[in-house]
Structure formats: structure tokens, C-alpha cells
Amino acid sequence: MTDVIIAPLDQLEARTFAGLQNAGADEVSAGAAIRAMLHASRLGIDSHGVRLTPHYARVLRSGRVNPTPKMQIRRTAIGSAVLDADNGLGHAAGYAAMELACSLAKEAGVGAVGVINSSHFGAAGAYALAGAEAGCIAVSMSNTDSIVGLHGGAERFHGTNPVAVGAPVPDQKPWLLDMATSSIPFNRVLLYKTLGRTLPAGVAADQSGQPTQDPALVEMLMPLGGIDFGFKGAALAGMVTLFSAILTGSTLDHELIRMAETHDFETPRRMGHFCLAVDPGQFLGRALYDEAISRYLAALRTSAAREGQTVMAPGDREWAVEVERQRSGIPVDQETAQFLGLIP
């Protein structure tokens, strides 16, 4: 691709950290944001990778996001808690909530943490992966600002509302699902607009609700399943709102200040997230779990494939991308590269 530059991981990490610290972020906040963004960039989820650095720097400087938050935890039961993110960067809240959920799960079998007073936390899979690496089956989700039409609808209602699940696998990378409940993430529309690329058919609509492939004309996304089966994506988006916003008492999708399409970058968005962790050892026992998931994945990956196709488990494609990008570097769009000082 001629519309990106390739940057080595260590250089990208240093420049991104400097960009956030120059905007006022403390070391914990900047470190968590970089960890989550580089997770996305390494695995090929470029819409949620380092391209978000300029946006985060802007909201840190403008007052929407607290650059030096003092997060607080309130235990509500043996297996549940609420984490107040103090309107800081959502990445720090996401990682802290998942760490707490895993700690609760080791004690109670299941740990659930609701996050309040937070902000955009990027790729939900970053926190599900952290939970899986801690030995838990982990779920992370967040509602977001209204950008997705309902099934049969002609206006924005839900956010892209991502949900991610990670599960540990012995001697292998975790099983990792990371998906938006919309047809695509809205950040991909912004990325394609920056790159001058055309969107796939049936993933977005213009102001009149008609499908469009021009990212400059997109008014809303379609729910997962598109025109015919979008009721599935719309219902899943509602589930994420239920856990992330309704259960935590946070801002509902249609009431959230928009992430980027707004003139208000000063008012905190008070977003909610939800993290769930399950300790397999507290159910069938860790040895039996390890054997079962290994046997399951071995059967899945050797299952017969159609001609020209490859059967993969969730996460397999991303782990392959990570290997390649660790070797060759991370692609960065020109606009972000300029902000980070990677090009003049």
C-alpha cells in the first residue's frame, strides 16, 4: 500500500507514548492506552490502533478526558464490583476492571465488574486477551455513541457496541473473539475516508438510510447481519447496552456525546463498560478444561474446508497478522504518521 508508512514497533511505541504524555496523560493512563492501541495495531485492527492517538491527545487537552484520574473501586458482593474511572482514558479503566474481575473470579468462580465515568476504550479484545492471559475465560464490552441504525430503522440508535471473549489455551495463543455488533466499526469508516478507499457493500447507509460505499456520505452503519438479518446485530447491541450502560447506570447510546462528530470536546462522556471473568478451575477443574479446549480446537482446525478456504478459530487470523507485523513493522496512515513525527 502506498498510502501508509511502515514503522517499527519500538519507535511507534515511543512516539505514541510521547504524544499522549505531551497532551498531559499520566504514565499509567498513557501506558494503558498504548498497550491497547498497539494490541490493535499488531493484530491488524488498524481502525482501533495508533491512528486514534491524535483523537486521544485532543480530548485530553480539551478537558473531555481527565489526564490524571484517580480511579476508585467499590466492592458490591463477593463476586462483583464497580470501578469509577474518574473520566480518564478508558484503556486504563478497561485493564483495571479486567484485572479486578479475574481476582474476584479466583475467589468466587465468577467475577463481574461494571465501569462508570469512563471514555472510549478502543478494541474490546485487548481486555478479553488480558483476562485470558490471566487464566480466565473473559468477556469485555462497552456501549458507544449512537451511530448504528436499528433493523428496519432509518436513524441512528445503538452504538457499534463491541463485545470480546478470550479463553486460555495451554501452550497456544488464546481463543479470542473481538467483534462489533454493527456491520463494521465506525472507526473503519474514518480510516477508509483517510485512505480514500471504498467501503464494502451493505455495511453503511447515507442520510436517507440508503446503502452507500462512499465513507464521506456515511450517516449511519447497519447492524451486524445487514439489511436482511440485521435484527441479530441490533439485539446483540442492545445486550451490550444492557450490561454496559443500564446495569451500571451509565449514559445510554442515544444520549452519549458523539466521539468525533461534535463541537463539544470538553464535556466528559461518562461511558460505561462491563468485564466478566470465569475461572475454569472453579468449574470442571483446570486439567479437564485444558484437555477439552485443546481437543476442541484441534478438531475445529482439522475440520474439512471448502475448496480455496481455510478453517480458523476466532483469533487465528489476528495471530498470523501479529507474526507478520512483528517481522515487517506496523502500517500507519500518513495523517497519524505526521502527528507522531514519523514523517516530516
From TrEMBL:
One Pfam family from the record: Ldh_2
Keyword set, alphabetical order: Oxidoreductase
Domain of life assignment: Bacteria
Gene Ontology MF: a single term: oxidoreductase activity
Family the UniProt entry places it in: Belongs to the LDH2/MDH2 oxidoreductase family.
PANTHER family: MALATE DEHYDROGENASE, OXIDOREDUCTASE-RELATED
Record-given protein name: Ldh family oxidoreductase
